[in-house]
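Quick one, T. Sequence first:
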Amino acid sequence: MKFDKEPALFFPKLARFYDFAVPFSWVVVRFGVGWVLAVHGYGKVMRGMEAQTKQLNVTIPYLADFNFPLSFFLTFVEGLGGVCIMLGLFTRFFAAANAIEMAFLTFVVYWGNGFGWLSKGYEYTLMWGILCFAIALRGGGPWSADRLLGKEL
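Structure tokens:
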């Protein structure tokens, strides 16, 4: 079985539409993921770093033992990273950083609560982690700032 060839279209007249839509679909995915991350990061800024640090120490108590401004790092990765993912700027770096963050949250913080997000499970962080991982693998795509620069991380 070969996967290197596109399947034939049931409606060949849609070929021109798909030629446009397929590259554009990656912009939609990137924008959606980046938007959610950026808004989440912005929420951290609005709550303030002190409140965010307290929340992290409640959610992940052993982080209080580390002398590391994790709140700043998470705000940077989610907030600025989300904007960069939307723009397709340094896409692989920020998508990978968010995927690592979501993997930590999934497997260390929420795994013991089970799957369902409503019971503080890992459903939400797993989904966002997988999406960020896919973006890190693919990069910004044809319509991205990385493509305009001609370089990517």
